[in-house]
Structure formats: structure tokens, C-alpha cells
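Explain this fold:

***
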Amino acid sequence: WGNGFTEWLNVAKAKPLFKGHFQPRIPTDLGFYDLRLPEVREEQANLAKYAGIEGFCYWHYWFGNGKRLLEMPFNQVVESGKPDYPFCLCWANHTWSNKTWLNSKKAVQEQVLVEQQYLGDQDYIDHFNALLPAFKDKRYITVDGKPLFVVYNPIDIPDMDRFICLWRELAIQNGLKGIHFVGRTNNAAFRNAGEQGKGKYKLPTVDNAAEFYNSILEMGFDAVNSVGRLRAEILSKGRYGQVVKRVLKKFLDVDVLNLFDQSSINNHLFAPEDEWDNVYPTIYPNWDRSPRGGKSATIWTNSTPDEFKKILEKSEKLSSSKNDEHKIVFIQAWNEWGEGNYMEPDLQYGRGKIKKM
């Protein structure tokens, strides 16, 4: 994205797009921080402890042949033993292009910056060995005694079953009880289950979460990290509204703001199947992708601390009957400022979303 670029550039230059739109979003307690600094990571952990969060799930990049990006902060966490705060990993297995963090325009020629590759057994072994010190760290979060490892896009991995089998064997060989594999998936989509990114577009349905979850479990995963954002948006405005927006953007390059009220999102975020013992749902403190997407962004309004408290209470009730080890809820996210999706203190609400509820 150019020499010296950080996503704080997008965050700071964001502008209000309608009356009452709060932009730019400015961090307070931590400022425009640099994750390479240990004191920043320490203070992030202190804030998360204050909020009652169990631990951080770090995005982890492995593109094949040992190619990694953004790995320095987490490597330092493992090597230094600080902060003394629980963590786990999610393999963010997707290709990077020049449109990822830029305001998308049809005139921009999309270019692959880093391609995600799946290179077979030896590369999977190298990948495991690179993470073994983290898996053996006393801070690593476990489920049923096994290190929790999330895969962002299971559908893209052509031999996912082989990957899982091999890693489980390697874990046992290295003194671990195994790996608790969690596959991430939407509970509604514009394609059939198992065809994300591959099949033909269709009108989405919102009552087939079981199909999506089972498609992940059948690959060999122990559990599902369910993502309900699209489902909630569809039920808030209807299937056809989402289709029209996509058509306008793709064929006419027409920017249409996608506005939703947070309370409506909260009402539709969970599918009934999120009560399954092996499903770990995702909740959102807020969403405003305009720093990245400009006038074509999806924006949730009225994302107040009170609304966040409501979704926290819903997720707690949803998980109440599950096995204690499986009462897991992912927050998306702690510090995704470029998507207006964060819990860290800002000018608008201060510590409102991390205060003890």
C-alpha cells in the first residue's frame, strides 16, 4: 500500500457521509499506536482484562513456503512471555489484493499483492512447527485440553481433511492432546454451503444455518465459529435490497451506502443453531467500513454501549446450556479500526464498551 502506510491513515482521513455520521473515529487511551511496541501490547491486555475478556485471538498469516506478514507483534508476545494474557490464533487464509484496504473503484486494476497457497504436507508440517512454541505456551487458550485454532476460510483449502489429520498427528507427537479445530463460516450466504467463493450467486436464505455448520463439521472440524452479519443485514432490509446493491456496484459502479440500525442487527444476528454445543457465535460492538469503502460502505448506526450490552446478554443466554468448555463467544473485533469495528476507547464513547457490565 506504499511506503509508510498504516491503516491509521485511512482511519484519520475518514469523513462523515450523512447527518449524524460520527467520523473520523479517534482513539483515546492508546492513541495512534504501533503494535511493535511492547508497552502498547501490555496496555491492550490491561484494557481487555478490565473488560472481562478471556483472551485475544490473533489473526495469523501463513501464505505458504514460510511466507508470513504482520507476524512481529505476536512473535514478540511468544518470545518475551509478555503480556501475561491468554491468546489463541486464527489462520487468516486469504489472498491479499490492492483493493483490501482501499476505497474500491471499478477503474482500479485489481492486483494480487500476496497469494495464499496450499502446498501440501511438507508446508503444513513447517506451518505447524512454526507455531509449536505458541501451542506449548502456558498462556495459549485450550478447549477440552487442546489448543484452540481457528481457520478463517476452510472452504478454500483443497485438502482441509488432510491438513487437520496431519496437525492432529503432529500435536500428539509433540506432547499435546491434539488441536481443537474451529472452522469459521457465515450462517447465510449468496452461495450454497460449501461453495463460498466458488459456486454461482443465488438469492440467500436465512434458515439453512445447519447446512453451513454441518459442511464445516464434516471436514473434520471440532466446532464452528458462526458469523451472522450477512444474515442480520438481510433480515433487517430484505434479500432483494442486498442483491440490488451488489448489482449496482458491479455493473454500473454506483456507490450506495448500506445503512443498518445496530438494534435491528442485534435482533437477527444469531441463528437457532447457534445454540448447538459445538457452535461459537460472533458478536459485533459496531461496524462502519467507510474508512476503507467510502461511499459504498456498510455502516451500522446507533452502536451505543447500551446496544453492545444487549448483544452481550443475548450471547450469554445463548451459551447458557452449553458445556462449560464450549461457552465461547468471539467478538469481532477488538481493534479493527478501519472497519469501525473495535472495543478500544475512542472519543465518542470513551471506555463505554469495555466497562464492567
In short: DSSP finds eleven helices and 14 strands in the chain.
